[in-house]
TrEMBL record, chains A, B:
Gene3D superfamilies: 3.30.70.360, Zn peptidases. Keywords: Hydrolase, Metal-binding, Zinc. This is N-carbamoyl-L-amino-acid hydrolase. Zn(2+) 1 binds at H79, D90, H186. It comes from the Bacteria. InterPro entries: Amidase_Cbmase, Bact_exopeptidase_dim_dom, Peptidase_M20, Peptidase_M20_dimer. Residues 205-304 form the Peptidase M20 dimerisation domain. Belongs to the peptidase M20 family. Binds 2 Zn(2+) ions per subunit. It comes from Microbulbifer rhizosphaerae. The keyword Zinc applies.
Length: 406, 406
């Protein structure tokens, strides 16, 4: 069994880095705070004598050698980066639970047969750099290294530059080696476990995600003398498209999701009709056909609104992460561990993307969820029960041991 | 008669300061570019030997003494600041037409009875600092000096600080002295004169304007796992309110105006429902009852949308400039001048706010409009015919001479 108090203490210590006044964390990918978080993590890893490698995407691989060092390792990991107004658990819990597993084995002098590896993936959130999960995505071969290094934040700084700046541009190639199995533990970030009063989610897959940059091109003009009928007002087009799309998404299915996370008008002067409005859009659905329907609806409605308003609407797809089904044996390993530990549990599909999505391209994978208060995540008030975090970490330990052998 | 070629040359020289790649100007209030524009203007004024005073709001008063220096002066003026993507004529034309009047009288050795004063008002656009026309507004007693100095731009820099920084925080009190009459010449910024093929607008008044900061307060949450029904999404509320309000404004009357010039989501991360969305809203109508109707409609609809979406909507009125009717004798002086010069002309109400609105609180005022291409303004492509600019300047000269006497 792991040490729940030590896990909690490590979570709280990490949460001080980038702590926000409202009790959350702002430790966005490849910022100074991310560097501090990585440094603290590596210090903890050195204390238990693990070997560390860093790849060209800044992904950190921590290895605890097994008795058969050539056997493919059993892997766990998640991310240390947060949303700009993120919480203390999203991602961090998966990393520090992995560390707690290694610490526990070290304490108890347990040597596994296969080696264990703990990974910190770069820029999972997709908040500073788009798309999400790009560290694991490049590593798994979904994106090229050039693409990864070239992604820029709103100020124009790129992942490549920022990796070099904070000293985490590693030497290892960002590419997979054989892996026996991989597990990731994470807070659910949704309301199901809490509502059902269950402690462990046995994650069978991840829903599909498509990201878009939607730009509405209007004609700037004066707020006063210009008749309404003579305007090409990008905000009119934005309002009409969003109104229709929200209605359609909600009517289509309870499983469909639409989020307009960012919005910006240029030049942004109150008495000038904007020249353009930029919208960052996120659509999701657990089934490929459902996601395809939302995708086609977006393009169709954009055409209709363009027609109706005279505002040119440019819809550029930025990212597509299709629905993923996890490995049945890894799912079973999680299910068995939850049973063995006497934890109430249910099978479920993840609503959020995770590094496990890309890891699952090259290795057998499953995930473990624990409840978070009110299902709230990507919010500074994100919170989770120490008991639940301990239970999830014990499930991780048992699943990893089952697959690594002792 | 004024020298149209010299007027045009001065406009083009001023337009180099803050020139944008798309052929417009970005010379926002109290920036380095505004300082350069003011410096150039003062150099031109010194060349014709005028006395210059600067007040505590950075308003510049240029005086050409008359033969009865104690008689209240006849005043003209406008502004040198621009929108972030503004044109070469909005405001600047009124200032440089005033300069051209003074240059012409100097050339021809004409001494007026009453003195003439040419004013450059600070921050007319309201683009960098809200509200618009604040230099003339403080001077006329609509706002206190403390209020004026305290207004901040998006980065937090205040008018007081920026006036000091660029060296235009003058010593004179920002308060009016007796004025015989005031005239302001400006491009129309709307399509009427061009459509009617007329050269001079005799401006009888200015429509009413109300500005609002509308803030939609949502609950940040994750774009994936959070069910649509559990969200308080400020973008849903924004879209619904804008959709309804645009429809109502367009249905209410052809004279009504609604502009959403600025829009911003916080924290602005694609996979997080925003915590808040801020909208800068501008409503206008020529009649007080019409503007009041739009105002009440906004508050009523905001309540309805708040009810429907669960998103708290905070509507804060930022500025109210009621409809203004100009002085009948000044209107007549412009009308007479246009007739005497044989210019086609029509009476009209201004759709844009102008410094003349606040000057009219303390002095008899009227304005002169000339056409601009396609009625386009607050746009880098803003353009006007040299002939029309010359005609407007001659009307200004004649109206000022008629009121100042020779
Ligand atoms: N777990 C998590 O918050 N991932 C961010 C990627 C996503 O948008 O789902
Ligand atoms: N003339 C002009 O563009 N003034 C700006 C104030 C307004 O918004 O009407």
């Amino acid at each position: 069994r792991i040490d729940g108090a030590r896990l909690w203490a490590s979570l709280m210590e990490m949460a001080r880095i980038g702590a926000t006044p409202a009790g959350g964390c702002n430790r966005q990918a490849l910022t100074d705070e991310d560097k501090q978080g990585r440094d603290l993590f590596l210090q903890w890893c050195r204390e238990i004598g693990c070997e560390v490698r860093i790849d060209r995407m800044g992904n950190i691989f921590v290895r605890r050698a097994g008795s058969e060092p050539d056997a493919p390792p059993v892997v766990t990991g998640s991310h240390l980066d947060t949303q700009p107004t993120g919480g203390k658990f999203d991602g961090v819990y998966g990393v520090l639970a992995g560390l707690e597993v290694l610490r526990t084995l070290e304490d108890q002098g347990v040597r596994t047969r296969a080696s264990l590896e703990l990974v910190v993936w770069t820029n999972e959130e997709g908040a500073r750099f788009s798309p999400a999960m790009i560290g694991s995505g490049v590593w798994a071969g979904e994106f090229s290294l050039e693409y990864g290094h070239g992604r820029a934040d709103k100020s124009g700084a790129t992942i490549g530059e920022e990796l070099r700046r904070i000293g985490y541009l590693g030497e290892e190639p960002a590419e997979p080696k054989p892996i026996a199995a991989a597990f990731e533990v994470h807070i659910e970030q949704g309301p199901i476990l809490e509502k059902k009063n269950e402690v462990i989610g046995v994650v069978t897959g991840v829903q599909g995600i498509r990201w878009y940059d939607v730009t509405f091109h209007g004609t700037p003009c004066h707020a006063g003398p210009t008749p309404m009928a003579d305007r090409r007002d990008p905000v009119q087009a934005l309002a009409l498209l969003c109104e229709r799309l929200y209605s359609e998404v909600k009517a289509y299915s309870d499983d469909a999701r639409m989020t307009c996370g960012d919005l910006r008008a240029e030049p942004g002067s109150r008495n000038t009709v904007p020249e353009k409005v930029a919208l960052a859009l996120d659509l999701r659905h657990p089934q490929p056909e459902g996601l395809e329907h939302l995708h086609r609806t977006l393009y169709r409605m954009a055409d209709q609104v363009e027609e109706a308003t005279g505002v040119a609407i440019d819809v550029r797809e930025e990212w597509h992460s299709p629905p993923v089904v996890f490995d049945s044996q890894c799912i079973e390993a999680v299910d068995d561990a939850a049973k063995a530990l006497g934890c109430s549990h249910r099978k479920m599909v993840s609503g959020a993307g995770h590094d496990s999505v890309y890891v699952s391209r090259v290795a057998p994978v499953s995930m473990i969820f624990v409840p978070c208060a009110g299902g709230l995540s990507h919010n500074e008030a994100e919170s989770a029960e120490p008991d639940h975090l301990e239970a999830g970490c014990n499930v991780l330990l048992q699943a990893m041991l089952a697959r690594a052998g002792t």
